TrEMBL record, chain A:
Record field: transmembrane: none
Organism: Allochromatium warmingii
Any Pfam family: STAS
Top-level taxonomy: Bacteria, Pseudomonadati, Pseudomonadota, Gammaproteobacteria, Chromatiales
Family statement drawn from the similarity comment of this UniProt entry: Belongs to the anti-sigma-factor antagonist family.
Protein name, UniProt field: Anti-sigma factor antagonist
Top-rank lineage group of the source organism: Bacteria
Automatic annotation (TrEMBL), chain B:
Organism: Allochromatium warmingii
GO molecular function, one term: kinase activity
Protein name: Serine phosphatase RsbU, regulator of sigma subunit
Chief location: membrane
The UniProt record lists the keyword tRNA-binding: no
Subcellular location as annotated: Membrane
Gene Ontology terms: cellular component: membrane
């Protein structure tokens, strides 16, 4: 199952739904997309992890880089609806403390609206 | 002209103004006195002469009285013989005797007087009496004329005619009239001739009388009555003459004659008195006039002196005031009050001086203002210039700083690059380990080291020292390292490598640099070391016992000196627990602050005391620290480089058997090329193999990806044709994952840095998480090197 990302631009910001495997070979495109969005100051992105099956350190790296860029450009990056196994990888890496990760998608959308 | 006035200029130059004016005043006074003196003297002489004339007149009055008496007495004596002789007129004689000039006349008068007395005693003859008394009268007349001469009565031109009238003509007329009467009275025979003679005398006297009276009237207009008296006298004289003529014939006329004669005498006397009075009045008036003239001259003199003195005092005071003004003004100007102006209200030349001073002062003040303005302007210009220059300097400094900083940055970049081309990862195997360090003395070093695995499982170690320091040495170092590494990696014997490298370096060595080097090949399997030395310090070998030996080396020449040289191989063996130290002279020649060298002895002692069990890295750090403490902060004299090879004393790990797993079943055997694109197919197979346990599949795939990516990117340096072998096995309790590659030895679980997962977003470094994830997810993770490659074994419990 290859990696896919569906990107939807709304009034509140970007909503991106990930699915498949996010690994060394597939992470490049997503990283570029996210960084491009954060080129514009104060951009907001909500990423839905519910359909993501796999993530490696290469995928983690994308979100760390994106989060740093978001902070620089006063943007917002919200990660939501992670499956348990994926969330475990984030937890082991210590990323749950430094990234904005919300389990419930509706809550995450509400936060995106506030941003 | 200058010579002419030189004396007076000289004198004037030595006198104050007051003395100058005093001098002029004295000269003028003397001149006035000198001028008035003759006038005054002349007036004085004239006065004295007039006084003398007056005295003469007074004497003349007495003489005239005496004459009148003598004439009357003669007339009596000729008629009466008893008539006594007249007494000598004592007053007249006493007055005459005071003048010696009159001595003759007085003697004559005295003599004739005595003769009269003698005649009166012895002769009764009237004619005789007449003669003696006439002689007396003649003597008196002579005295009168002498007296007149003495008193200069005849000399004064103003009164000469009058004096002639008084002293000569009138007495003569009186005598003639008296004698005429007496002759007629005596009735002598010679009467007719005498009468004629008298007639002549009187006729001659008339003009002189008229002239004298006219002169007196001219001198004294108030004496007009003289003319009347003269007219009466002349008429009387005429009538007496007529009567005398008649008496010659008629004797009765004598009585008339006597009467007429007396009347004429009286009239003559009257005229004489009036004339004397007039002359005296004239003389008094004349004296007064002269005295008045004298007073006038004196008054003019004094007035002139006073006027001159007053004038000079005024000039002096005025000049003094002007000079004082000038002096005060000049002093005030000199003391700094530049607005001082001098006002002088006179009209002399000092006004010009004051005006010139004021002009100079104004001009001076104006010039001073101009100078001040110029100075201020210059000052402003200077300040502006200073500002501009300061700004330019600041700009230049900033540019210099920027340039310096740029150079420094470039140097630091070069230093980083230099450090980067030297290996920073060192093998730390179970049986042996290598560590090395290089500390450049400047930004860039000329030392280098290297360690690299050879294809046959042996390991190359290299240390080298380029002559010189700095950028040139650094470039030569980079070239030398590349040449040596390129040659060495093929695994030839060190002597050939060095000889070949020497030839290559000699070809391109424009700066005539050279490099000492020691290259060795270590065989981890048996501790054998094959080495050759190109002019470098012999390596030091420390046995486990602590004994130190310097390895044998030929006297071979450094690289780059000349081509065509050969080098010699030597062998040595590292026993278990032995340590090999390669170093550059930056270690032994390090200088303490007192100028002492670190030296071989100190190095040997340090190596002897070292503890190899701490590991190669610890030994390198300890040596660097020892040298640093010896140098004690002094500037490094040379690059410091050292390389330590330790052969560990423990058993070989490769011999240790893997933990035995019960009922092990191989789930998957997979070979993939060392390329990232081969990972997804592996993942699919893993998922398939562990379809019943997706959690285990995710964990396995995660670990496989992290470790294989590591090997592909770092261990094999992108050599994509190399194979990696993966095996998944399953026991009752464990999932076992084995990954085998043929990369150089590397233990990710001991050597990879552990990330700090507590850091915040900003501080968190990107990357370095892979090994951490593997170690966290797996229950056991170990790496081995079996001589041909790395073997990684992962274990994860099947229990949740």
């Amino acid at each position: 199952m290859s990696f896919q990302s569906e990107m939807l631009q709304t009034e509140q910001g970007w909503q991106i739904a990930l699915s498949g495997r996010l690994d060394t070979t597939t992470c490049g495109e997503l990283e570029q997309s996210l960084l491009e969005i954060f080129e514009t100051a104060a951009s907001a992105i909500l990423i839905d992890f519910s359909a993501l099956e796999y993530i490696s350190s290469a995928g983690l790296r994308v979100f760390l880089v994106a989060a740093k860029r978001a902070k620089q450009s006063k943007g917002t990056l919200i990660l939501c609806a992670m499956p348990a196994a994926i969330k475990n990888v984030f937890a082991i890496s210590g990323f749950l403390k430094i990234l904005d990760v919300i389990d419930d998608r509706e809550l995450a959308l509400a936060q995106l609206n506030r941003a | 002209m200058q010579t002419l006035f030189a004396p007076t200029v000289w004198l004037s130059g030595r006198l104050t103004f007051s003395r100058k004016y005093l001098l002029i005043g004295v000269v003028v006074l003397l001149a006035l006195i000198a001028l008035s003196q003759p006038v005054l003297q002349h007036a004085d002489a004239t006065i004295r002469r007039a006084e003398l004339e007056r005295a003469g007149l007074r004497a003349f009055v007495i003489q005239a009285d005496t004459l009148m008496v003598l004439i009357e007495q003669r007339h009596v004596a000729i008629q009466d013989a008893t008539q006594p002789p007249p007494a000598a007129e004592q007053q007249l004689l006493a007055a005459a005797q005071r003048h010696p000039e009159l001595a003759d006349a007085v003697t004559r008068l005295q003599t004739s007087w005595d003769a009269v007395r003698t005649t009166d005693e012895y002769s009764r003859d009237p004619q005789h009496r007449f003669a003696t008394r006439t002689a007396t009268i003649n003597a008196l007349l002579s005295l009168m004329q002498a007296s007149a001469r003495l008193h200069r009565l005849n000399v004064d031109s103003a009164l000469d005619a009058a004096c002639d009238l008084l002293t000569v003509r009138l007495p003569l007329v009186l005598e003639t009239l008296g004698k005429q009467r007496d002759v007629l009275t005596l009735d002598l025979v010679e009467l007719a001739s005498y009468a004629l003679g008298a007639q002549v005398v009187l006729a001659e006297a008339v003009p002189s009388l008229k002239t004298g009276v006219a002169q007196l009237i001219e001198r004294r207009p108030t004496a007009a009555n003289l003319q009347h008296a003269l007219t009466v006298l002349l008429t009387g004289i005429q009538r007496q003459q007529d009567t005398a003529d008649r008496a010659l014939d008629d004797r009765t006329a004598l009585a008339d004659l006597s009467t007429l004669s007396r009347a004429n005498l009286a009239q003559a006397r009257l005229l004489l008195d009036q004339a004397v009075t007039a002359a005296d009045a004239y003389l008094v008036a004349h004296i007064e006039r002269l005295q008045h003239t004298q007073w006038s001259i004196a008054a003019i003199l004094i007035g002139t002196v006073i006027a001159i003195a007053y004038l000079f005092a005024g000039i002096y005071l005025s000049t003094l005031r002007s000079l004082k003004n000038l002096s005060q003004g000049t002093a005030a100007f000199c003391s700094g009050r530049l607005d001082t102006r001098i006002t002088i209200d006179t009209r002399d030349e000092l006004v010009l001086v004051a005006r010139n001073f004021n002009t100079v002062a104004t001009e001076f003040q104006r010039l001073l203002e101009v100078i001040r303005e110029q100075n201020a302007s210059r000052q402003r210009e200077l300040e502006t210039l200073v500002h501009i220059r300061t700004a330019e300097l600041a700009k230049s400094n900033a540019q210099l700083r920027a340039a310096g900083q740029r150079v420094q940055e470039e140097l630091m970049l070069a230093r980083s690059m230099q450090a980067a081309i030297l290996p920073q990862d060192f093998p730390n195997e179970v049986t042996w380990a290598i560590h090395a360090a290089m500390y450049p003395a400047r930004e860039l070093g000329g030392d280098f080291y290297d360690c690299f695995a050879l294809a046959d499982g042996r390991y190359g170690i290299l240390i080298a020292d380029v002559s010189g320091k700095g950028v040139g040495a650094a470039f030569f170092m980079a070239v030398s390292r590349t040449v040596l590494l390129d040659l060495a990696i093929n695994g030839g014997p060190p002597s050939e490598i060095l000889a070949h490298a020497n030839d290559l370096l000699c070809e391109r060595n424009p700066m005539q640099l050279f490099v000492t080097a020691c290259y060795g090949i270590y065989d981890p399997r048996n501790g054998q070391l094959l080495y050759a030395n190109a002019g470098h310090h012999p390596p030091l070998l420390r046995q486990a016992s602590g004994s130190i030996t310097a390895l044998d080396c030929a006297q071979d020449v450094a690289l780059g000196v000349m081509d065509g040289l050969t080098y010699t191989d030597y062998t040595a063996t590292l026993a278990l627990g032995a340590t090999l130290l390669l170093y550059t002279d930056g270690v032994t020649e390090a200088l303490s602050p007192r100028g002492q060298e670190y030296g071989d002895d100190r190095l040997h002692a340090w190596l002897k005391a070292a503890v190899p069990a701490d590991g190669a890295e610890a030994l390198v750090n300890a040596l660097v620290a020892d040298v640093a403490s010896f140098v004690a902060g002094a500037e490094a004299s040379d690059d410091l480089t050292c390389l330590v090879l330790c052969r560990k004393s423990g058993e070989l790990c490769v011999d240790t058997p893997l933990p035995l797993l019960d009922n092990m079943t191989v789930l998957l055997e997979h070979h993939l090329h060392a390329r990232l694109g081969d990972i997804p197919p592996l993942a699919e197979r893993v998922e398939t193999a562990l379809a019943e346990r997706p959690d285990l599949a995710l964990a396995a795939n995660l670990c496989l990806e992290e470790l294989i990516v590591n090997t592909v990117q770092h261990g094999l340096n992108g050599e994509s044709d190399r194979l990696i072998h993966v095996r998944l096995s399953l026991s009752d309790e464990w999932l076992q994952i084995i990954i085998k590659d043929d990369a150089p030895p590397f233990d990710p679980f001991t050597e990879a840095p552990v990330p700090n997962i507590e850091l915040g977003l900003d501080e968190r470094p990107i990357g370095g998480l892979g090994v951490h994830l593997v170690k966290s997810i797996m229950d056991e993770a170990r790496a081995y090197y079996d001589g041909s490659g790395n073997l990684i074994v992962l274990l994860k419990t099947l229990h949740h």
